[in-house]
């Protein structure tokens, strides 16, 4: 999730408070179960054959999710004990969000206290593990490179020891990590295969969030570097990008402002992240209607805002996700997941309901498609 929050672009998110975790609260395990049945507070031990890994950012929309499929919920919103009880009643894990400042983790003492604090929190909240989401640049020859692998290993060891059946996962973008070392040290990697226009090196034009070829090439690269496919969960976007076009040509080429990022002359920071639910409402009032880009295997549309500016919106729909998801079975990946589950329209109106169902439906393993 490199830049995945919809309301605030995390690219510019500042770390506002930094705490040292010296004072861990004493924990009496097993007390204060908020669920209607005490067994719903017990950690999930079952290991599913296929993961459907769902990011939840809060609100109550989780009630409308397709729980017949979900195996893990990464709770990135405010803690909601009802979500945990409900997930457990469906046999799904709920895992904590783990983010940490990279420069701190070089210190083994810091790592130990950070892990102790997270473990304590997971236990108090009756959770089943942790999802490590570290959205900072890692340089290959930096001390952070090895410290990160150590952090994942130490976190996994502690969680497995203290919470039976617990799951530790790590979110990766294409950066300089010790991928295989990290994958070996935890249950699996959630691959954030989106925000792929975060560095645009060629022409500054709007493009797909997760183009087909580029995405699958990324997975091929992981496998080529010796990664076990069972250690990979494919992340798909349930959001898109709205770009204001400096110029929109007749053949739908939308030129965008130059917003440099990490050395590249332009980036998706020229656009604005929009949730699927907004996109679905907007398509019918667009000037182009739904378009399909053959090269990128992704849908888009153009619209004109009240000020008269043209926009191009790139997003993912059941068709584009389904095409990418075929790779999962063909190459034996561990599962699929999305950023984020809240993004669909769960208002209950008939069209929205149908669209949401289709988005959930394409997550199901597709057999015999090779
Ligand atoms: C990585 O290297 C770049 C340039 O070489 C530097 O600007 C950046 O601060 C470094 N990042 C870290 C986390 O050390
Ligand atoms: C990755 O991490 C593993 C485990 O710590 C280590 O054995 C291996 O040498 C590392 N690989 C690289 C390329 O740093
Ligand atoms: C801008 O768009 C117009 C009309 O769509 C097109 O004729 C023109 O070639 C475009 N200009 C550039 C620089 O792409
Ligand atoms: C948009 O138009 C299509 C085709 O006319 C229709 O099936 C669909 O229900 C409309 N979507 C919404 C959100 O109204
Ligand atoms: C995508 O990859 C396939 C296979 O490598 C290739 O044949 C095709 O031309 C590529 N498409 C694009 C748009 O790059």
UniProtKB/TrEMBL annotation:
Gene3D superfamilies: 3.10.50.10, Glycosidases. The keyword Hydrolase applies. It comes from Aotus nancymaae (Ma's night monkey). One of its GO terms (cellular component) is extracellular space. SMART domains: Glyco_18. Keywords: Glycoprotein, Glycosidase, Hydrolase, Lysosome, Signal. Involved in the degradation of asparagine-linked glycoproteins. Hydrolyze of N-acetyl-beta-D-glucosamine (1-4)N-acetylglucosamine chitobiose core from the reducing end of the bond, it requires prior cleavage by glycosylasparaginase. The keyword Transmembrane does not apply. It is found in: Lysosome. InterPro entries: Chitinase_II/V-like_cat (IPR011583), Chitinase_insertion_sf (IPR029070), DIAC_cat (IPR047898), GH (IPR017853), GH18_Domain-Containing (IPR051887), Glyco_hydro18_cat (IPR001223), Glyco_hydro_18_chit_AS (IPR001579). The lineage of its organism: Eukaryota, Metazoa, Chordata, Craniata, Vertebrata. One of its GO terms (biological process) is oligosaccharide catabolic process. GO terms for molecular function: chitin binding; chitinase activity. CDD domains: GH18_chitobiase. SUPFAM superfamilies: (Trans)glycosidases. Belongs to the glycosyl hydrolase 18 family. This is Di-N-acetylchitobiase. Residues 1-370 form the GH18 domain. Pfam families: Glyco_hydro_18.
